[in-house]
């Protein structure tokens, strides 16, 4: 079987995130990284391969600016065999609908039996891409999977809802998103990092992918940012840097001051 | 007149509180509020009660294929009605979000997630969401009809009244591929144990605690504060502790006088379950953890150093 793992380039956790006032889009000029939620998808693909299931290929699929090749290198170091980067100016400013359409169009040609996404993107806090992609591909869907078994051309997944845990089975090909609790990802070895440089990354333009450009980018966006405003004011909290537990008296003092002890 | 179609999720006979909040919000927008409920063996009287929560009328999709609440058959059942609507509104929920996203893809429609405010006016449908770690409020309009709007957990109150609404049973057509995923088991949320929603003080932990072997350190602090222990989805999913202790979107919503968050990053799914706590103290070694953005006191440090010393200092008082 073949596995495709969707990955996204997001601003790094340490960078200051802001919207570009000129475009109302996320300012992506700062440092970026591989979406941490997607690392669990790559790890799970590796674990399926290690479970004895015949996995011929793991491909990392990304839509983003050209510089997303850097986080894609990490995806390759984490175990993907090759990478596909859909990158085109025409895609800038795509909304969820446009992104799902574009990703699904690229995935369609990857011949993947299982498409894995992370549960959400760290920059957008949405957890809807897997379901949208599954609908485009007309394939069974299980999101937020916390435990996964894949064998004999089907998957069995356990996922949490508001009502408890559901155990869902689906035939392959299928689309899933994985919970960040599904696994603890291993760190890539130096050898894997070096080896990633030799793995192929294919760059696709919108035309290469056969996209209808009226459905993507700012022009194709069906959800349009009209304005921004500051959030409701909130008092800035107090901050203490602890060293070896030396903050305990200050915490106790704070709790006493606020009358909770 | 604008039609606001609200998908109402339910667990057996119980309507999902977030769906009822969405329904109530819809009823304030000045259009016709239509509730849509899907399942198998549904009772008309039960569905009609959605009128008490703001529905002007109720569409019931009743078919064995909808019995398990899996999202893809629901998208099929909802689609023809969504095409007629101005807005399709969804309360927060795991399966609900799947339905909303599948529907948006099906219709090529715009979708706004994490919505905390919604209006209908001259600009059309306007949805507002907090973004970038809730540091900015983003207002969106739609270039599609319908607009798909997915609410943030606990965004809208279900408070209000009304009377039973007329019920219409609608035909259900489900595509073959939508039946691919099947529910083979359900582990009900545990009942019993401590009711964390009733506690004045909660000491909650996330994966930053390192491992289940460190839970006693949290328990000792909870005891010293006269409180109970709570947890994040990630540690429950990892099997460190029971689901009944979980705070957040798929767990409990709590508002104790004091919430001590230990090794919790403060992801939005957790935040929505505890942000209304009286006082929030966060202890985390990651200086960039989002929880520091909304904690009243943030302690940047190693839990295994801070918690025992804090327990000791409290005991010495």
Low-confidence runs of chain A (pLDDT<50, min 5 residues)?
none
Instruction: Please give the count of helices of chain A.
Output: 7
**Main beta-sheet strand count, sense and barrel state of chain B:** 7 strands, parallel
On the 0 to 100 scale, the average pLDDT of chain A is 94
Overall geometry of chain A = globular
Q: Please, what is the oligomeric state?
A: heterodimer
**Helix-strand pattern of chain A:** EEEHEHEHEHEEEEHEHEEH
Topology order of chain B in helix (H) and strand (E) letters: EEEHEHEHEHEEEEEEEEHEHEHEEH
Strand content of chain B: 25-35%
The tally of beta strands of chain B, per DSSP, is 18
**Could you tell me how far the N terminus lies from the C terminus of chain A, measured between alpha carbons in angstroms?**
59 Å
Strand order of the largest sheet of chain A: 9-8-7-10-6-1-4-5-11
Taking strands numbered 1, 2, ... along the chain, how are they ordered across the largest sheet of chain B?
A: 7-11-6-1-4-5-12
What is the helix tally of chain B?
8
The radius of gyration computed from the alpha-carbon positions of chain B, rounded to a whole number of angstroms, is 21 Å
Q: What is the residue-averaged pLDDT of chain B?
A: 95
The low-confidence runs of chain B, each spanning 5 or more residues with pLDDT under 50, are none
**Compute the gyration radius of chain A: what is it?**
21 Å
